[in-house]
Design brief:
Pfam families: RraA-like. By secondary structure, the protein is of the alpha/beta class. It is built from eight helices and ten strands. It has one domain: Ribonuclease E inhibitor RraA/RraA-like (Glucose Oxidase, domain 1, 3-Layer(bba) Sandwich), CATH 3.50.30.
Length: 215
């Protein structure tokens, strides 16, 4: 896939939304619901650059920024550690200057207000005022599990207020097609509702309701 085609696919998935993308790929790829955006209005779309980080240390994050390319999303397994924030406003500014699309971290961040003000998409498990060390090793670019989901460098990361979903790199085009079809189906669904039909009819739930004896 050419670069402009890949970027167009990522933009399409971002605009369709994380929930639609999740449904379109058979309800696969969702990260833990605990990982949410600092700014609920932000949207995230980009290629993953994976980082396996030691809890309470951010040396590998500084190093990862020197390896990242424009459009990348740093996806960090910080082991869900919430008692220190290895990412803050300085790293966010550095990431923006390098053209990164955002950060997803299974851990905490700090300087939330400043990050929100600068408009850098950050998705995290929580917030912590505590700083971190810069002493421990880590790994960049290898498959990791973040929020219970496997992420590989090059996979597509989509995030919004609902949460974060990962799309395998080789499935991107197919998921774009299915997500668009789902969006079109939902548009038709809404039109039918406005015409007076019910969700029970549209989802063919009558038999299940009858079987369960619901009244």
């Amino acid at each position: 896939m050419k670069v402009h085609e890949a970027n167009a696919a990522i933009t399409a998935l971002r605009d369709l939304g994380a929930a639609t993308v999740h449904e379109a790929q058979g309800c696969r790829g969702a990260l833990s619901a605990a990982i949410k955006p600092i700014d609920i209005n932000c949207r995230l779309g980009g290629r993953a650059l994976t980082v396996d980080a030691a809890p309470g240390d951010n040396l590998i994050l500084h190093h990862a920024l020197t390896k990242a390319r424009p459009g990348d999303v740093l996806v960090v397994d910080a082991k869900g550690y919430l008692e220190a924030g290895p990412w803050g406003d300085i790293l966010s500014e550095a990431a923006m200057l390098r053209g990164l699309s955002g950060l997803v971290i299974d851990g905490a961040v700090r300087d939330a207000a400043a990050i929100e003000e600068m408009g850098f998409p950050v998705f995290c498990r929580g917030l912590s005022i505590r700083g971190t060390g810069k002493n421990q090793p880590g790994v960049i670019g290898q498959p990791i599990v973040v929020g219970g989901t496997l992420v590989r460098t090059g996979d597509v990361i989509i995030g919004d207020r609902d949460g974060v979903v990962v799309v395998a790199a080789e499935e991107t085009d197919a998921v774009v097609d299915r997500a668009r079809q789902r969006a079109e189906k939902e548009t038709a669904f809404r039109a039918s509702l406005r015409e007076g039909r019910t969700t029970v009819e549209l989802l063919a739930l009558e038999a299940t309701i009858e079987r369960l004896g619901l009244r």
